[in-house]
Amino acid sequence: MPWLGSAPRWAAAAGRWGCRLLVLLLFLVPGPGGASEITFELPDNAKQCFYEDITQGTKCTLEFQVITGGHYDVDCRLEDPDGNVLYKEMKKQYDSYTFTASKNGTYKFCFSNEFSTFTHKTVYFDFQVGEDPPLFPSENRVSALTQMESACVSIHEALKSVIDYQTHFRLREAQGRSRAEDLNTRVAYWSVGEALILLVVSIGQVFLLKSFFSDKRTTTTRVGS
Question: What's the domain count of the chain?
Answer without folding.
Answer: 2
